[in-house]
Amino acid sequence: MAERSYLSIGQVVNYLRGAYPDLSNSKIRFLEDEGLITPHRTPKGYRQYSKEDVDRLEVILHLQKTRYMPLNVIKQKLDSATDLSTLAYEVGLLSDLPMKSEPRETQQKLHPIEDIPDLLGVEISFIRALADNDLIRIIRSPQNRELVDGRDFKIIRLCAELNRFHIEPRNLRQYVASANRESSMFEQVLISMISSDDSDDERNKKLERAFNKLHDLTDGVHTALLKNRVFESLNAVVEDADLDSIDDQISRAEAAKQSSASTAADAQKPAPLPKPQTARTRTAQRKNTSK
Which residues are CB-neighbours of 266 under 8 A, at least 6 positions away? Predict the structure, then answer.
């Protein structure tokens, strides 16, 4: 079967309906009639939508939904944009679109690879690229059918979103290596939390809670390290600091702290005891008193 380079209008609707529930085939055709999108046509006249067409459509729908822009203004903005991905980022699309989650029955099934464009709105060639880079697995049935695990649908959706930033599957191999390393560490921690008395349901819930906690912590470390490296490389953390000025500030703060500590110590010292009086001192005091 030939791999699809385009999506049908129904596949596009299915792909975008999670974020735009009111989207329909007729609305997409209307936007085409208004000149906002121009899908490819087959010799028989069927509409076929490329990735660029879908990205453009998302920008249109997002601006209608969040900015209430009329179509003629949206068309001007699209026509004047030099890069569609940059425009999508500028209008907040790439951060605002919710990530669709799959129902449990979908996650627990194996799906023929031919059904993935209808289910997820991505091309089969993209699925193969993910498998070639070990991000997902394509499973072969006894009759040599290619099947995709529903548990991999989230990875497919995330990678499809990253592809909008021109981050391709081959660029994500480092995360496969990282996951392989981290999985051993997680397994060692989680296995100690499993009790032989737990039912399967209790065991799964306990592992889920513990995994989420470990993931949040390690992901926090990873995110902070990655952000620091990127911002440092882009000189976006702070401007070049005046190290001499920082040294002076620290020195003054330390001197003030030492002075404060010395003053506090002096205040806590007991008052000096009076000197013992000698016979001569007492005689002199009596003479002064009698005068």
Answer: none
